[in-house]
Amino acid sequence: MRAVVQRVSEAAVHIGGAEHARIGTGLLVLLGVEVGDTEEDLEWLCGKVARLRIFSDPEGLMNLDVNDVRGEVLLVSQFTLQASTRKGNRPSYIRAARPEEATPLYLRAKQLLSGMVHGHVRSGEFGADMQVELINDGPVTIIIDSKLKE
């Protein structure tokens, strides 16, 4: 399981030309589920996201997590995070979990994050064609991989 976590001052997801979800200060989390990912991978990753200290304290050091700043989370499924570019120039998505495996984990991620984050946890729609709008604050972008535990 891979996540790209971006510290944002605001972010939104649009589906079919209409705004589906919006957050203010917080985290935009793009989540890619890999074949064979488990609840254990999900719990580790969600815990890491909720405790990630990437917000600035009064001294300007990144010492605060999303709860410390009363932030929100916008969770968006993104199977392309599992792309392999090893051969040729056309990415292969063979490692990405099929919807029947990935959807329950994505929905569970929202549930887990909702229990860990005090602010709103909003989401896109699994499998939808989405347009994501964000203002990356910093910019701060972190990649987390549950298999590598980093």
CATH class: Alpha Beta
Give the number of DSSP strands.
8
N-C termini distance: 11 Å
Order of helices and strands: EEEHEEEHEE
CATH superfamily annotation: D-tyrosyl-tRNA(Tyr) deacylase
CATH topology: D-tyrosyl-trna(Tyr) Deacylase, Chain: A
Strand content: 35-45%
What's the story with the biggest beta sheet? 6 strands, mixed
Low-confidence stretches: none
Describe this structure in words.
By secondary structure, this protein is an alpha/beta fold. It has a single domain (2-145), classed as 3-Layer(bba) Sandwich (D-tyrosyl-trna(Tyr) Deacylase, Chain: A), CATH 3.50.80.10. It has helices spanning 39-51, 99-116, and strands at residues 2-15, 18-23, 26-32, 55-56, 62-64, 72-77, 121-123, 130-145. The strands form 2 sheets. Strands 1, 2, 3, 6, 7 and 8 form a 6-stranded mixed β-sheet that branches. A two-stranded antiparallel ribbon has the order 4-5. Strand 6 (72-77), helix 2 (99-116) and strand 7 (121-123) form a beta-alpha-beta unit. Helix 1 (39-51) packs parallel to helix 2 (99-116). It is globular and about 45 Å long. The N and C termini lie close together (11 Å). The mean pLDDT is 96.
Produce the secondary structure layout:
Blueprint: E1 2-15, E2 18-23, E3 26-32, H1 39-51, E4 55-56, E5 62-64, E6 72-77, H2 99-116, E7 121-123, E8 130-145
Parallel strand pairs: 3-6, 6-7
Antiparallel strand pairs: 1-2, 1-3, 1-8, 4-5
Descriptors:
150 residues, alpha/beta, two-stranded antiparallel ribbon, 8 strands, globular
